[in-house]
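Hi support team,

I'm opening this ticket because the web form for multi-chain structure prediction keeps timing out on my end. I have pasted the exact lines I submitted so you can reproduce it. The total is 633 residues across two entries, so I didn't expect it to be a heavy job. Is there a limit I'm missing, or should I split the entries? Thanks in advance, R.K.
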Amino acid sequence: MEKMVIKDSGYKLEKAKILRTKQLTDKEKFFEIALGNGQPLDHEPGQFIMISLLGIGEVPISVASSPSGRDSFDVCVRAVGKVTNALHKLKAGDEIGIRGPYGKGFPTRELQGNDLLIIAGGLGLAPLRSLIHYVLDNRRDFGKVHILLGCKQPKELLFGDELEEWNQRADLYYACTVDRADPDWAGNVGLITTLIPGVDIEPARTFAAVVGPPVMYNFVIKELLSKGIPERQILLSFERNMKCGNGKCGRCQIQNLYCCQDGPVFHYEKIKNLSEAM
Amino acid sequence: MEDTHYVVLKKENFDQFISTLAQKQKLVAPVPKGFKSFAFEPVDSAGQVALKYIPTVLPLKKYFMPQRETLLEYRAGKVMKAEAVVEYEPLTIFGAHTCDLAGIQCLNMVFSERPKDYNYLTRKNKITLIGLECNEYCDAYASCNLVDASFPGGGYDLFFTDLGDDFVVHVNTRAGDEIVASTRSFDKTEPFQLDELRKLRDAKRKIFVNEVPIETKHIPELFDRSFRARAWKDLEARCLACGNCTNVCPTCYCFDIRDELDLTLKNGIRYRVWDSCQLEPFAKVAGGFNFRKERSVRQRHRYYRKFRYPMERFARYFCTGCGRCTRTCMADINLKETLNELLKESEDRVWKRWL
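Hello R.K., no limit was hit. The queue was backed up. Here is the completed structure from your submission:
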């Protein structure tokens, strides 16, 4: 076997530096990252990247910040496996490898001028935060904006100070619920679906963006449809264990679609009949 | 058939041809391994080459997409240094059957679809492909006619047809032309030889018929009707989820990517290795949810990836009819049988609607 270095390999890494970290919950940690070449990541809200720790491995992680206005980007990582646990041990100044961004994000041009109903379950807030920040950065391009948030328990809420800010803002409708309250919790208790009937929307001009654990989708979609939101205005983002990001390795395949290239954001209309999607 | 694109290799010159070819660069060809098994292995004389063979244990993808290949070489630590690499080897393959040539055509489409896979494409460009016609069926497991792979359909530099005393050889590319010129083993065709080739193909058309009673173009419709078929549940009970079928499939290309450090814990590589959608953790995500948990669903996925999904993406079947999955299956899961089951179930449903 002969070997040579190739420039256009799909597996080439960009060096990147961790600028800042913050432990958000027991399991989730926030990272602000900048590419070593000084360039912005140039992503769309909803796209994902591959994060590499050399000698340990690579994981797909969604970008949690808006592309507008800054050169660094954020991710929020739950420690669940080998790579993510190792990533949690890193601090500001440490170097990591990046590939991407990959996939199709939220169709922001299609969303412009419309009302938005953003529904996040648990860690689903991470990819949706990129959309929320994008919308807030370009607030006048969008109509009414609703954010519904759900998680298992209050101590699992991510981005606490930002949630408080969203709650205060006059140009946002914000509601949050937990499955199980703790003694200090004064807010809603119940599944995220309980928040949907109460939102005041005009279904015909509302786009819903939904990200959460697999179990959440069916119930939320049912509520959205009964609310009258058209199927093509429901956007979902799916989690899969992508290995390549290039539409080859087969890990993320949903019937004939590759989540890493054709998604991770899909129009509900396009994937509703794909049995392995949700 | 334009005469200028055909040449003849007399059997008495075959050994000279093989040894000259082997001197140029590494040459591999089907070699008998006993127990009715064959494998593509390096050869340097005609005596080693099996001219009549059933599909080798592993298909040609082992050269185009090695079982394990390095993608990245790096130095880990505070300051990382990583370089993307490609491993390749100039290679001539002699004796590829039409099913295996079709398999490579499939892989070519997959890896040249954007974003392109330059590891595959670089390697592919260093490989010369010489095909060899099947004059009759290799064994009862083949279903190459069903997927239009029983006759040569391109994808080779040279294509050999054994006519007894000599080979008629189709020259398909400039690389093929160069081999003909440089090995100096070939003669011009005589009209009777092209006649014989024509007769052989006519005879083949009588021998090779669709191995499952369905017209090739109707297969996608059959699969459109079969997503909830009972046949998948039957496979659930038999499949051992070993992944043999996907390993030996000429068009299965799923892979895993892994890291490996040497003993200094500083220098390492990232490599990709064949993976299989038939293995339990393949579609599992962080947190444990598995999108294809049941063996029936995983088997169904395999069949749809051969007969349905690629029709939309690449407008061709990703089954080449080589029969390897059936030959290798420890649980006797048989591709032709499964297709027959699906057909029967689908016909039953049509009858029920009428009654």
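A quick check on our side: Residues 216-354 of chain B form one domain. Let us know if the file doesn't open in your viewer.
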